[in-house]
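Re: beginner question about structure tokens

> Can someone show what the tokenized structure looks like for a real chain? I only ever see the sequence side.

Sure, here's an example I had lying around. Input first:
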Amino acid sequence: MDTIFLIVGTFMQDGFGHLKKISLLPILIILGATTAHAETSNVTNDILLSIWKQRFDLQSEFPEVSQGNLDNLKKWATTTGWKDDKRLAALIPPGQVPYYLFDSLLSIWKERSDLQKSYPEVAQNNLVNLKKWAVTTGWDQDPRLSILVPQGEVPSYQKNLLLQIWKNSADLQKTYPEVKNNDLTKLRNWATTTGWNEDKRLAALIPPGEVPKYLDDSLLSIWKERTDLQKSFPEVAQNNLVNLKKWAVTFGWNEDKRLAPLILPSQVPKYLDNSLLSIWKEKAYLQKSYPEVAKGDLTKLRNWATTTGWNEDPRLVVLTPAYLPHEDPSSSFHITDMVLLSIWNERIYLQKAFPEVAQGNLDNLKKWAVTFGWNEDKRLAALIPPGKVPSYLQKASFPVSNDILLSIWKERSYLQKSYPEVAKGNLTNLQKWATTTGWNEDKRLSALIPPGKVPQHLTNP
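And the corresponding structure tokens:
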């Protein structure tokens, strides 16, 4: 290690971006192979204090934090904390994978036969080589590993999104004409340095601790609605949003849906807890998989929500990963509000999931339309993804497509145990289950609801 002594003035800025008053004295700065001190500049004291207040073990280990001394807590954050808490994602050392990504890694491995062949040891819960794949290659292939994307990089799965943004912007086309020759180098640089601050569809590229300017209006609206924020941040009246933005990235994302682009990777805001509980009560397979929810422990259920659940239930649409092109429902949306309102008025479950539509707010309903609705309603045909065939067009003697049945089977371990023959393409018994029991458990089987029957997911609030 190289050691450098510096003489500093009356004030200095600490590693977390705050000014501290000090005496004139030599300051020892250690520059080692790792850049832990520099890395912590991406984590505010407010985030650290929030974590400390929520964990009794940290309060016992670092009682001095109550007196404003965060030195040891900062050391913990850079050495251990990044492994456990998603809010410390900015501190993940190069080449490392935090514990909370293990479930996502296993899900990816189970879905990909190439990974199963390359890393058969994962079946014995050995993830060493799979983690190496994740930090070297995987981050560029699967959006669930977006937290591992190196700073300044744009994963290849965002290429289509960047092209879409470029095609919709005359300014970008003039600035980066080389894109028409499939050269996205400079456009990617724009996305990571400027674009994230301008386009909602690039929310996945928002740097840690930053708030894009397109959220300013939402922040002002939230501030005007909440007297507590007005008292804490009176300077907002003079259009100074600096401290309010710090609140937004530290606490606000967890409190208000309008700050959804700031939701940390793999994190579930508190305001979704009631929805999660309702979903758990409706789905027998979730109750079997996560019995601890009955005692109020939603930890694993939240992980399910961020890895799989967002793609299964419209009430979790706010967790739709920011890398997906439909993150901005208003851009290139080709369905009229009148059509959406007609569909919403016809479906009770949509009315329950999106009550705000009654006040004219269709944002989440539009997200549902591009995520699920295209597969359910012919009026949303303009939203059918390339290469996809909606279930209502698939020719089959059975009212529900094989694709839907297979998706349900893959998601439920008890179905896999009961009907192993499905793995060989035999869906006969699975279809019997769907018509006798499944219709009462999964919304995707609504076509099988017997006359006069009301499925469980519509009777439980």
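Each token stands for a local structural state, so reading them left to right follows the chain. Strands lie at 2-7, 11-13, 19-21, 26-31.
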